[in-house]
Description:
By secondary structure, the protein is of the alpha/beta class. It has helices spanning 39-44, 53-61, 97-106, 117-125; strands spanning 3-11, 15-17, 48-52, 72-75, 90-93, 111-115, 129-137, 145-146, 157-165, 169-176. The chain has one domain: Dihydrofolate Reductase, subunit A (3-Layer(aba) Sandwich). The protein has four helices and ten strands, in the order E-E-H-E-H-E-E-H-E-H-E-E-E-E. The longest helix has 10 residues, at 97-106. The protein starts with a strand and ends with a strand. 26% of the residues are buried. The model has no long low-confidence stretch (mean pLDDT 95).
Amino acid sequence: MPYCSTFIATSLDGFIADRNGGVDFLEMIPNPDQLDMGYVAFNEKIDALVMGRKSFETVCGFDVPWPYDKPVFVLSNTLREIPEEYSGKAFLVSGKIREVLDELEHRGYHRFYIDGGKTIQSFLKEDLIEEMIITVFPVLLGRGIPLFGELDNQLEFDLVSSQVYLDQLVQLHYRRKRST
């Protein structure tokens, strides 16, 4: 059984990007000591990332070196190929989520970081997210790309921890509550 989790930031009103897809709000709180806010520890627990095409394109647009040290699987039914500069770092996958996860597990990956609004929503709709680490920024964007969407069924989570970073950001760590 795959273990899927997410580590993401959101505005107070639940948006992961503004109405133009921008994430400038992530830079609004100075972080002079470059605190990772738990990301390194989170990253050590995963085998690979699964992200949507839009998130992949956003990351490719950042003016920084490739930020991932694990394989990135780009879930897309429209993208035809990964740009050459990301060859060997990012891999295109398509199809139904459970089939994609089965294939990736067959390749030896079991613990996944799920990233991107629509991708996270799709995984939640399939009840595949076991853990969510959400860092809330003190801003109301009003409109944008929402973290959560409609679900067919209610999903319950237990609060594992909450932590304040930089005297402004609240990070909430939830784990899926499952019936035994």
